[in-house]
Amino acid sequence: MKNLIVANWKMNPASQKEAKEIFDATRDGVKGLGQEIVICPPSVYLYASVFGKGIVSMGAQNVFWEDKGAFTGEVSAVMLKDLGVEYVIIGHSERRKYFGETDEIINKKIKKSLEAGLKIIFCVGETEEERSENKQEEVVERQIKKGLEGVNDILGMAIAYEPVWAIGTGKACGVEDAKKMQEFIRKLAPEARVLYGGSVKSENSGDYIKQAGANGLLVGGASLNAEEFVKIVKSAE
Q1: Which of 21, 66, 92, 138 is catalytic?
Q2: Any idea what the CATH number is for the domain that residue 223 is in?
Q3: Active-site position among 94, 101, 130, 162
Q4: Would residue 101 show up in a list of annotated catalytic residues for this protein?
Q5: Is-catalytic flag, 128?
């Protein structure tokens, strides 16, 4: 199975022009490489799916748990699917922290997205305080069990282990710690692909796959630099 390398642009860049430049440079740079590439831009740039068909897949950063209705500002799974989106990130720590998303909300989003035929990138991970108390396995187990409650088929789902203390901080998780957590996640969800995310850059990306055994990567800030992101993809070859 190919490694899954996901670019999460978060709320960047500021213009369509910049978005297209990053997208085009990334698409051209990964041509011929043997990894599965997903780009998750802000929803206003998802139109770019027409440029990358066959080379990269498009993913959304968020989704709502109903198909339609009076939910101002939200986007449904069926809308994303109709747009040509293949993947959706659910449960990212920033959604949990800033928007109050609970395990129950995440569970509803996962179910609705699967119903619509979207592929899931399900994020889990502990805070710095939880790790200092040696609760990382307890936290991740709760997130996975509650997030996947009532979900019968997770074959092909990607679970991204993203220690919250490593996201955007430059304090990347050690390879051995990442390996241990990925092995723990596989015991809970053996049919899922397990990714690593959190301060991923080209200097450490290959180690997370080749030494820690990740099935891919969820890349944040580094994915906005097309040259750096292509290096990350190449490190998995």
Answers
A1: 92
A2: 3.20.20.70
A3: 162
A4: no
A5: no
